[in-house]
Amino acid sequence: QLVEEINAERDSRKRRMLIDKLRNLGNHRNNLSVKAAGEGSFVVAHRPKDAVHYSEYKPCRFCCGYFAKKSIWKHKCPFAPKSELGGKIPRMRKGASDLLCGEEPGSVSLGFAGLMNGMRRDEIGTMALKDSLILELGRSLCTKFGGDQDQFNYIRGKMRQIARLLLELRKNSAAHELHMTDFIRPTKFPAIVEAAKRVAGLNEGSSEYHAPSSALKSGGVVRRLAEIKQAKALERSDPAVAEECVQFLKLCQLKWSNEISSTALRNIADRKRTGVLFVPLTEDVVKLNELLVEQ
């Protein structure tokens, strides 16, 4: 697909940009092989003045060029999404550690098995255990935390959150056997937004979420799923699916805030402002103090 775009492009500047991206994709595959073998030439797009170990480089999510972790924020990627006015989107995360997919064997795989054993076997838990992309999310988070059991409840919560979203997506889809990976594409973005609103309990009349924190968290997890799918596509040399994931991430960056996050943040702020703070009575504090003194 990228080669077809290069052949069809008449603008010499855009053509050079596409050729650079194609070269970066080849370098990315080479770097994955070098990282796995522990030897070879590690190709980067920019090398800082100070010596940096190869493990301290990460690829740009949009052009796949490799930059040092500490300096990738300076990278002005021509493929990164722009705002509606054509300007830079603030706090755009270009670094893509998920594309490196270097999983440590041993304790992490054993920890992941323990993580799955603790999953509650209700409808949501069963859905999480059957969907391959949700399982990849759990495995990725387990790798990130090094199999730390203290993080298992957090990881299970993320997996169950996406399982709820998938159940809602299936309810409103003609095909009830679709998996989460089938919804991580630009054409399905509106369906994901509507499902996330329903899962968070949006009241259309008052524009208020029953669970605004759920609406906020779902955006980050959906982006993580798109990153994992992109990494898998690059591993199997499928640039069409990888580019599809990039376009999906651009939509998330451009529209998720207006569609969901802004309302959820306003709901949280309103609840904090109007919430009732209960202060203990003086006699209750005295009784508590007397009890503590006696003990």
Key attributes of the depicted protein:
mainly alpha; two-stranded antiparallel sheet; 295 residues; two-stranded antiparallel ribbon; single chain; 59% helix
Account of the 3D structure:
The N and C termini lie far apart (75 Å). The relative contact order is 0.09. The chain has a two-stranded antiparallel ribbon with strand order 1-2. Strands 3-4 form a two-stranded antiparallel sheet. The protein has helices at 2-8, 12-37, 107-117, 123-130, 132-144, 152-171, 180-183, 189-199, 212-235, 239-274, 282-294; strands at residues 57-59, 66-68, 202-203, 208-209. With 295 residues, it is mainly α. It is built from 11 helices and 4 strands; from the N terminus they run H-H-E-E-H-H-H-H-H-H-E-E-H-H-H. Residues 102-108 have low confidence and may be disordered. It is 59% helix and 3% strand. The longest helix has 36 residues, at 239-274.
